[in-house]
Automatic annotation (TrEMBL):
Composition skew (Acidic residues), residue ranges: 1-17
Taxon lineage: Bacteria, Pseudomonadati, Pseudomonadota, Alphaproteobacteria, Rhodobacterales
Alphabetical list of InterPro entries matching this protein: DUF1403 (IPR009843)
Protein name (Swiss-Prot/TrEMBL): HTH DNA binding domain-containing protein
Region called Disordered, residue ranges: 1-26
Length: 338
């Protein structure tokens, strides 16, 4: 018999190479629900200010027609995802997101871009929060957002993670939606619901959870202020206070973006008042309702010819009202020069 047969580090015959090397503790225990309930009481004023900011933004959207409202929510979603990507350490400019994968520069992280596309859809209201498979887009095996998705639990293991997440949230039953979302964002990071590098999933869940009982506002933006809270730790009270501050700042920024766009539309209509016919007004309406337009999209939406759309876009650009973001390529995209 060889001396190698006696080596103490030989694996046992029944050892499964897929088994983890050591037992893993349940990290959800690191969150203390009573501390969060106490923090909610101590942060009552901050919570009230954050809730008021959400209500103000929601009220502004409620006064708009459905088409315009959808376009503005899309704008808020794009802006929010840009901030989330910065917080996650994978920054992508907003215009790159708008141009989408087909026209993205080779220097852009394509996995991050694919995750950003998913996030934009979720912040527009896609996916049910109460069904995390649906929210994450995991309806079918193999449906994911890159190789990192292979590290996500599947089957019964994923179901166990969702049940644990729901059980953790249940500990804050009766608390304000803002408190539960902040707690849930921290809780999510302590589970295996998302593979490494998919931090946007917890951020998007929290943004949607805070708007769950709101009206037309389907997500609560934090914008650049969110970078201070999305990935930090700290005690419950300090975190919740910072979270509420980010909400107030983000909603106020969103409110300003919408008002600026409305002001741009008024200015654009005054500037183009001498252009004969109503086609210029149709183009302006489309630029308000959509973050980006092409001549082909205008042809379909405004029921005008492609030549007319291109001619009007060129004229609006000459007036300083629109800006091309595709550098004169064959497939050209335009945005309002707000």
């Amino acid at each position: 018999m060889s001396d190698l047969d006696d080596y103490w580090f030989d694996p046992l015959d029944d050892a499964d190479p897929a088994d983890p090397p050591l037992p893993r503790a349940d990290r959800r225990a690191l969150l203390d629900p009573p501390a969060w309930r106490a923090a909610e009481k101590d942060c009552a004023v901050d919570l009230a200010r954050a809730a008021q900011a959400i209500g103000r933004l929601d009220g502004l959207l409620a006064g708009l027609d459905e088409t315009l409202r959808r376009g503005l929510i899309t704008r808020l979603a794009f802006s929010e995802v840009v901030s989330m990507l910065w917080a996650a350490g994978t920054p992508i400019p907003q215009e790159v997101l708008i141009r989408d994968l087909a026209d993205a520069p080779s220097s852009v992280d394509l996995d991050a871009l694919a995750l950003a596309r998913w996030a934009i859809g979720r912040l527009q209201g896609r996916g049910r929060l109460e069904a995390l498979r649906d929210f994450l887009g995991l309806h079918r095996a193999g449906q994911g957002r890159g190789d990192s998705d292979l590290l996500r639990p599947t089957g019964a293991d994923f179901d166990s993670e969702t049940e644990g997440f729901a059980a953790g949230l249940a500990a804050l039953e009766g608390c304000h939606a803002i408190t539960r979302a902040a707690f849930g964002c921290r809780l999510w990071r302590l589970t295996d619901l998302s593979p490494d590098g998919h931090q946007l999933e917890a951020m998007c869940w929290a943004a949607r959870a805070m708007a769950d009982s709101a009206g037309p506002l389907v997500m609560v933006p934090m914008g650049q202020a969110g970078r201070r809270v999305w990935t930090i730790g700290g005690d419950a009270e300090g975190f919740l206070r910072a979270w509420c501050g980010a909400i107030a700042a983000g909603c106020e920024a969103g409110f300003r973006v919408i008002r600026q766009l409305m002001d741009w539309a008024d200015r654009a209509r005054r500037t183009t008042a001498r252009i004969k016919g109503g086609n210029a007004g149709l183009v302006i309406d489309a630029l308000v309702a959509h973050p980006v337009v092409s001549a082909a999209a205008l042809e379909a939406e405004a029921a005008i010819s492609r030549d007319t759309a291109e001619r009007l876009l060129a004229r609006l650009q000459g007036l300083g009202l629109v800006r091309e973001i595709t550098g004169g390529t064959r497939f050209r995209l335009w945005v309002a020069a707000v």
